[in-house]
From TrEMBL:
This is dTDP-4-dehydrorhamnose 3,5-epimerase. It is an enzyme of class 5 (isomerase). Catalyzes the epimerization of the C3' and C5'positions of dTDP-6-deoxy-D-xylo-4-hexulose, forming dTDP-6-deoxy-L-lyxo-4-hexulose. Keywords: Isomerase. It comes from Microvirga puerhi.
Amino acid sequence: METEATALPDVLIVRTKAFQDSRGFFTETYNQAAFAKAGITEAFVQDNVSLSTQVGTVRGLHFQLPPFAQAKLVRVVRGRILDIAVDLRRASPTFGQHVAVELSETNRQQIFVPAGFAHGFCTLEPNTEVQYKVSASYSPTHDRGLAWDDPALGIPWPVAPERAILSDKDTKHPRLAALAAELF
Ligand SMILES: Cc1cn([C@H]2C[C@H](O)[C@@H](COP(=O)(O)OP(=O)(O)O[C@H]3O[C@@H](C)C(=O)[C@@H](O)[C@H]3O)O2)c(=O)[nH]c1=O
């Protein structure tokens, strides 16, 4: 496997080696020892999958508060997304900044998003299936959101706000400036 730094040094793009043959390919999407060697030492405790049927589906921006803050290792099994991570660590020099990375069934790259970041994505193809590992279990009482379309974030979403397909919950999150000091 190899990792590539992004504009936010703690967010990594991960590529694992694929073995091609006449049947197709084989790759290890996660290997604890290899990832630890590359600096990803989180113990992942839950695997998630979501299917978004329509192009322009936006999920996010989501995070969980401590002690249930989650690091995430995200990949796309089918389709294509623009994946977004926003730094919410108040003491960080890159607080409020984001990384945008395209993940697809074709490029098979993954993104590692540490705890202390909000995460979300927009689907670029129908029937897109996203799988991700998280380092803390789901806790609805610690689950929080950040407005995906907050202009202060400057995220280059590939869908117009009026066309985005969102959950009811994701239309109601506060903007960054209104997030309480309850962050990280
Ligand atoms: C996230 C999650 C949801 N659920 C349930 C709650 C709810 O009834 C249903 C759908 O939940 P949501 O609307 O929050 O699903 P979704 O909008 O897909 O939420 C996910 O978005 C991406 C961007 C992330 O980064 C994830 O961490 C997660 O927040 O699934 C669980 O049982 N376990 C979980 O870990």
